[in-house]
Structure formats: C-alpha cells, structure tokens
Specification:
Two copies of one chain form a homodimer.
Chain A (H helix, E strand, L loop, with lengths): L2 H7 L13 H11 L11 E6 L2 H19 L3 H4 L4 H15 L5 E8 L2 H6 L6 H14 L2 E2 L9 H8 L5 E3 L3 E4 L13 H4 E3 L10
Chain lengths: 204, 204
C-alpha cells in the first residue's frame, strides 16, 4: 500500500469482528512498530499481546469503568448530531465491547532519566503509529486508547508488569466491521503557525 | 512510496544541508501529520514552523545547552565503537549545528483534563511519525528531538506560546547529507510478550 493512502485512510476502527487474527500478522505489525525512533535509540519498549479471553475480559471491565469516569458526563452529547457525537457513540460502543476484540496490544516503556525531561510518549507513540499504519495495510482495524490507565495498577498486576515500567496505551486490533476512510480534521492552515504563535498564512 | 519502504528506511537524519525546503513540501508533510489520531479527535495540536535565522540561532543555543546538561557525561562513550557511540556522535553533531537546519517544526499540544490521565504524547507523536514518514517520501531528513525542553520556558517566550500549551518536540528538517536506511533494532521476538510480562515466544 502506498504511504499516503495508508496515512489518509487510517481512522479509528472501534467496531471489530471477533474473528481471530493470524499470529503472522501480529508479528508483521509489531516488526513495523519497532522501526520507529526512540530517544538515543534506546528502544525502551515492550509490547504485550493479550489474546487470553479472561485477561481481556478483566481489562475490558476496567476500561469501561475508566470510560464512565472520564466521559460519563458526556452521555447527553452522544445524542447530538455531528462528528463529535459520532466519535463519542463509537467510543461508547468500544468501551462496552472492548474484550470482544481478538487482540489487545499494550506497549510499555521503561522509565529513564531523560524521560523525566521529555516525557515517555516520544519514544513509543511513533512506534504505535507505525503499528497502526502496518495494520491498515493488512486491512486490520485498530484504535489508540488510553483509558485503561484509570486502572493502570490493576492492569500491570494482572500482566505482571514490573515497577519502573509504564503501560502507555491499549490498542484493540481485529478485522473491522466498518470501512476505512479519512476522518474529519481542521484544515492544516488553521493549525500551522510560522515563526511565532498565531502567525497563520495562506497555503500557497 | 510504499508504506513499508518508508517505515523501514526512515532513520534519524542529523546531518542536514542548509538548502531551503520549498514551502509546498512543508505544507505537504504537515497535511500528512494532521491525519493522525488524537484523543476524542480533539486535535489539540498546533505546528510552529520556524525558518527565521535569528530564532533558530537562539533555539539552537538552548538546545546545545540542553544536550550538554543531559549528555555531557557521555563524552567518553562517544569515542567508543558500535551503534550507540555512532548515535551519540551524530547527536553531538546535531546539537552543535541545529540552527543550520533550514526548517524547525515544533508541535505543541493544548493541555486538557484527559491528558492528565494519559499524558499528552498520545495525541501528538502519531502525528509526528506521519510527518517524518511523509518527509521521508520526499527525500527530506528529520529527527525527533526533545532536548529544547531543558529551556522550554525560553523557547515558549521567544515564540509567544501561551500558558496551557506545551511544546512537545523539535523536528529539524532539511535535505540530508547521508543516506536513508534501516537503523539497528533489537529483534521483535525479544521485546514482545504474550499474555504476560516476560512471556516470549518464537516468531512462527
């Protein structure tokens, strides 16, 4: 698949079939993930693949609780029209069906002194984007989620993740029910500034 | 360019020519960046493009100071052999020549309540990876750097970035002196665990 086609048609796929994903494809998307950069090429990452039904069920319960805590107040907004309400309804569906995804991928990062300055996200989310692009090329749907972090201690205990290692996100992956396509975005001219905050210019 | 070719040949390009980058290409890589996901599709990002020589010079000085503070102790390690020493020497070159890059791109994120749980990196570094992949497809070199954050307050003041907005990284971009190619990585089997920490399996 051409790079720009992958980038422009990769949207969050929150409704997934329960059909299994061949292990070969899981390796393939992970192998693309680790091509991403990390600070000083330290590769502070691990990737925990969860396919065990009982572990997915528990994590799904914690995720749903996280969703309700963070977005419970948005119930009204879900019934509105427009892109934002559609995202909320789709995220609500995901929160109620997370464990049905055949595969969870949970990237982790080992903390370091440098991370204290720059945050640890810069050494894992480029890899996550590679993973999701590689999945897109295989026709596999993914979503970048972080709400399991409301119960991160429990998730870490369940999976045996040691101290000093943080789970950075949770990516449910599977064959999508919907179609890939371009998501709604503000135009690039509105969010780009030149040499100083607020200094927009027309796209030439 | 094919997706996997871009992902597998994208390495940090820390030695850049001073030749300018056409504005059209800057727009193109930014337009690819904003196709990435963000929490709830809130798109909390802005991208500050810096081409002003004096501003690049000042930021370059702060960056060099950050480099010396964080990695000054690594001077000895730079003279060793091996991949890690090569990365350090190349990063040392970048720190001493940052302002020569024709373009800096500084992505920013508006803080939010959700970010307090998940960190803000999940809503910007996927976009940064898209940007670097799109640059790769044009033959433009980039590096994901974060050491300006040692002097973030000064960088924000120089660029007029308001309170509640954080600069997330600094990407020097330009035509590379070296060649694209695959960087060294630990094998994916070593960093992948199945259903629990430490549970490796052979790649089928």
């Amino acid at each position: 698949m051409e790079l720009h086609e992958a980038m422009y048609s990769l949207r969050a796929m929150r409704r997934l079939k329960t059909d299994p994903v061949p292990e070969e494809l899981i390796w393939k998307v992970l192998d693309a993930a680790i091509r991403a950069p990390s600070g000083g090429n330290r590769q502070p990452w691990n990737f925990i693949v969860v396919t065990d039904a009982e572990k997915k069920r528990k994590i799904g319960e914690w995720y749903l609780d996280g969703w309700q805590k963070m977005y419970g107040a948005a119930q009204g907004a879900m019934e509105a029209e427009g892109d934002q309400a559609r995202v909320l309804r789709s995220a609500d569906h995901l929160a109620n069906h997370l464990a049905e995804a055949p595969v969870f991928i949970i990237p982790t990062v080992r903390a370091s002194g440098v991370a204290a300055v720059s945050g640890m996200g810069s050494s894992i989310f480029p890899a996550v984007q590679n993973l999701m692009l590689a999945a897109r090329a295989e026709g596999l749907g993914t979503t970048l989620t972080t709400l399991h972090k409301v119960h991160e201690a429990e998730v870490k205990e369940l999976l045996g993740v040691p101290e000093g290692v943080e789970t950075m996100c949770l990516i449910p992956m599977g064959w999508p029910k919907g179609k890939f396509g371009q998501g709604p975005r503000l135009p690039v001219e509105k969010v780009t500034y030149w040499d100083g905050w607020g200094e927009t210019k027309a796209k030439g």
